[in-house]
Amino acid sequence: MLRMKTVTPGKRKRRVIALVLFGGCALAITWCFLPTRSRHPALDEFLRAQRLADAGRRNSLLRVIPLKTRLRLAQFLDKKSMEKRAKLYQSDELESIMFYAPDLPERKARLSEQQLGVLSSRRFIEVASSDQDTVALRCLPEMVSDLQHRFCYVTNYIPRSALTRLSFFNSEGTVCRLPDGTEVDVAAGQKWLNESVAAGFRVGISRRGVTQLLVVTREHASLSGPPSRRTE
Predict the structure, then answer these.
(1) Of 28, 107, 162, 220, which sits with the fewest C-beta atoms within 10 Å of its C-beta?
(2) How far is residue 216's CA from residue 190's CA, in Å, rounded to a whole number?
(3) Pairing of strands 95-100, 125-130
(4) Are 207 and 97 in contact (CB under 8 A)?
(5) How crowded is the C-beta side of 181, counted as CA atoms within 13 Å?
(6) According to the model, what pLDDT value does residue 229 have?
(7) Do 230 and 101 meet the contact criterion of CB atoms below 8 Å apart?
């Protein structure tokens, strides 16, 4: 004789909650991966996928869903988030920009989690690579001007090696663009930078993408805070 499986009210309630949450997750996932009509659709899709993946790992309400199902859901959301990130990198929505940024207190402040978090919450920015005196960032094109200002803080002699590294060790094929739009060779660009430092300016050097164009900038030291220590 077959025995009917008894479902207690508590189990029935948990199943209903699990089904509702699972259905809600399905709707959220569908919404997350719908295309957007904003200026940066690939960025919007990635940010939504990332938020959903974070929620899938941290939301305590999902504990009513069986563990195996939760793990599969988390893996699925993480995978989709990575796919959206790759799509964003392949799009033309982001700008890659590298700065001459010696390992000084100012650099640490500009690359702190707090500073990057503030910028990212308003738009989007992340560190692509970083070494002792250069840092490469990914950001939206409209952020480039602001970042060039933030990384205009060096107050000491600029060595030729810094310009050489930023120009992919191809100084002969590289030009430096001065603030007035004039384009000069690397030697003249280094001379302008060091004369600016001697005159009391803070200077900055950046390269956008894989171009052979270095953009040099300067501003009065009083606009950027206390002087840096030496970088030689």
Answers:
(1) 220
(2) 9
(3) unpaired
(4) yes
(5) 0
(6) 41
(7) no
